[in-house]
Design goal:
Elements lengths: L1 H8 L4 H10 L2 H29 L4
């Protein structure tokens, strides 16, 4: 899951990338990426609802 999290930020050392490629199952990486993306969207939606509800956006 750490490899997926670092990939969202776009920072990864080359040596760590090579280790991840050698040992990670691509299906697990895809599932982790989808879950991470869904969580990211959910947090953004909740943040926007909070800002709109608090009256800051008015």
């Amino acid at each position: 899951m750490r490899a997926v999290a670092w990939s969202f930020f776009g920072i990864r050392r080359g040596a760590d990338y090579e280790k991840d490629v050698a040992r990670l199952n691509p299906v697990h990486v895809i599932i982790g990426g989808v879950i991470g993306a869904l969580l990211f969207v959910l947090v953004l939606v909740l943040l926007v609802q909070w800002v709109i509800g608090s009256g800051v956006a008015a």
